[in-house]
Write a structure and sequence with these properties.
With 263 residues, the chain is mainly α. 77% of the residues lie in helices and 2% in strands. It is built from ten helices and two strands, in the order ααααααααββαα. The protein has a two-stranded antiparallel sheet. Helix 3 packs parallel to helix 5. The longest helix is centred in the first third of the chain and has 29 residues. It is globular, with a radius of gyration of 17 Å.
């Protein structure tokens, strides 16, 4: 019962984050799931893979709710989504294939470093070049491959990369968050399918697993996140973004340190 309550609470929190900052919540879900799965004595060599795959599978549903809320507010740039989609598909599938071939400890180290990178990025304020704009279709494909591959390797919906990239290209913050929320859906679909496929014939996985996706955890996360994602999108249009980014940054530092202590 305690396990289910943890999934529900985590889902509620990351749903708000998805709507608020355009992130799928994987930066929070992955370390929390890794701690829960370790406590449940899942095979240690599969803990990080299961955390990554389950995180991405839950983001499939969360991203739909978040993207719809931002679309209704007119902050999704559909052309950007179309241009980046081919690269996203290729990058996500490649990243899932690579993740399945890495041991748990290297995956954990990569995730910890990424958490610290994102947290530091959120704390640093910078002014992009006024003449900079989004690249053409080929450039967007390359960007999509990078974002998709990294999203698979660290179990996120891509917002931690796509939001800063779009802001760097002089998109306003609300459009960057809304468009990132829409991009999170194809990222989660392709990446989670990759984790299902690469883990399908792996032995010693816990019952109720579909490859590297642990279905009970996914269900608990989704149940509450779909309810709270629209709340986050609503808050994104009301609360001061700089303050929110700083709070999220310190949360990431804490979760990264917590995971580092398990190495």
């Amino acid at each position: 019962m305690e396990e289910i309550l943890l999934y529900l609470a985590t889902g509620a929190f990351v749903g708000v984050l998805a709507g608020l900052l355009g992130v799928g919540g994987g930066l929070v879900i992955v370390p929390v799931l890794a701690m829960i799965f370790t406590g449940l004595q899942f095979p240690l060599q599969h803990v990080q893979h299961l955390a990554l795959g389950t995180s991405l599978a839950s983001i499939v549903i969360t991203s739909i709710s978040s993207a719809r809320a931002h679309h209704n507010r007119g902050t999704v740039n559909r052309q950007t989504v179309r241009d980046i989609l081919p690269g996203i598909a290729l990058g996500c599938l490649s990243g899932a294939w690579l993740a399945a071939r890495l041991a748990t400890e290297p995956l954990k180290i990569l995730f910890i470093l990424f958490e610290f990178y994102v947290a530091t990025q959120l704390l640093l304020e910078f002014a992009p070049n006024a003449s900079r704009s989004l690249p053409g279709r080929f450039g967007m494909t390359v960007v999509g491959i990078v974002i998709g591959a990294m999203s698979s390797l660290v179990g996120i919906g891509g917002g931690a990369l796509s939001v800063p990239f779009m802001v760097w290209c002089n998109r306003n913050m609300r459009e960057a968050v809304g468009t990132s929320a829409a991009i999170g859906f194809p990222i989660a679909v392709f990446a989670s399918l990759g984790f299902v496929a690469t883990g399908w014939n792996v032995e010693a996985l816990p019952a109720y697993s579909a490859g590297f996706v642990y279905l009970p955890a996914m269900a608990g996360l989704v149940l509450t996140s779909v309810l709270t994602a629209p709340m986050g999108a609503k808050l994104a249009h009301r609360l001061p973004v700089p303050v929110l980014k700083k709070i999220f940054a310190f949360l990431l530092y804490g979760l990264g340190l917590k995971m580092a202590m398990t190495l």
